[in-house]
Amino acid sequence: MKRSTFDTLLSFLLGFAWALLLLGSWLLFHITAIFGFSIALLTTIVFIFLMFCVILMLEGLNLYKERVENQREQTRLLQRIAELLESEA
């Protein structure tokens, strides 16, 4: 099945978001560690929470797109069935 540009872009953004989550949280913890462990841990947790929100948003877009594609396919099939039933009657 051919993938659209939107699918490719969405997959790229999801991969980038996961990479940013992993590398960004590690880097943020080490950068803010000079201010103390508790501050470093708090900023890292906030960053991880925000990145999970971004990932969930992108996954939601992906699920919505798949649902719309499935509904279009079902509509096309139902229209074809209706045409076949009308031609038989």
UniProtKB/TrEMBL annotation:
<feature type="transmembrane region" description="Helical">
    <location>
        <begin position="35"/>
        <end position="58"/>
    </location>
</feature>
<keyword id="KW-1133">Transmembrane helix</keyword>
<protein>
    <recommendedName>
        <fullName>DUF4282 domain-containing protein</fullName>
    </recommendedName>
</protein>
<feature type="transmembrane region" description="Helical">
    <location>
        <begin position="9"/>
        <end position="29"/>
    </location>
</feature>
<keyword id="KW-0812">Transmembrane</keyword>
<keyword id="KW-0472">Membrane</keyword>
